[in-house]
Amino acid sequence: MLTDEERKERIAKRAAEELADGMVVNLGVGIPTLVANYVAGKKVYLQSENGILGVGPYPKAGEEDKDLINAGRKHVTIVPGASFFDSAQSFGQIRGGHIDCTIIGGLQVSETGDLANWLVPGKDVLGVGGAMDLVVGAPKVIIATQHTTREGEAKIVPTCTLPLTAKQAVDMIITEYAVFRFHGGRLILEEITSDFSLADLRSVTTARYEISPELKVRVV
């Protein structure tokens, strides 16, 4: 059985495979920030909305720079040529269409691509932050999230019951067990891991989806 950390690392590693040379990519808080650990060898430019372009992998223990943090308040490193700017400049990049892709977390994704990734006031979580701007400003939106809640409830659902971040904004969902894409408003299962069956996936996914005729089984 996978540990929580193994789930997160598996998701981040798979998400990194979607990135191509030359892309400017925003990494949201949580699992998405781990993607920075898996882009070695690729010429991608990772952006953190608190004002960094050129985010590198997490620092080793004891090598943290207290002045270098990402939007999730975690210590990061920077790559040569990195730049720093204020929030206005950061959101100018996001709203101006200068971000090629955003990888963010999700609490719920509907079968039509609606996204809910923040909770109601009073809960011990971050607010909506820049997610609303990101899912509108970035041409590619990837949701990197564990497949179910800690209570085992589905996150990929027929209709979001939590407050919406955006409607029909999601292009792709990556979990520890599967990869889904939206094509023409339809949710398509394109990949499943070898340690999870189609029946298992159905039991934890309440949304309606189609199975690609070219379904890939990823050996893990």
How is the topology of this model organized?
Layout (H helix, E strand, L loop, with lengths): L3 H13 L7 E4 L17 E4 L3 E4 L22 E7 L2 H9 L5 E4 L3 E3 L4 E2 L14 H7 L2 E5 L11 E2 L14 E3 L3 E6 L2 E8 L4 H6 L6 E9 L2
* Morphology call: globular
Q: Given this structure, which CATH class is correct? A: Alpha Beta
Secondary structure category: alpha/beta
- CATH superfamily assignment? Glutaconate Coenzyme A-transferase
Explained architecture:
This protein has 220 residues and is α/β, with parallel strands linked by helices. The protein has one domain (4-218): Glutaconate Coenzyme A-transferase (3-Layer(aba) Sandwich), CATH 3.40.1080.10. The protein has four helices and 13 strands. It has a ten-stranded mixed sheet. The radius of gyration is 17 Å and the shape is globular. The mean pLDDT is 94.
How would you sum up this structure in a few lines?
The chain is an alpha/beta fold and 220 residues long.
Give keywords.
single chain, three-stranded mixed β-sheet, 220 residues, Glutaconate Coenzyme A-transferase, ten-stranded mixed β-sheet, 28% strand, 16% helix, globular, 4 helices, alpha/beta
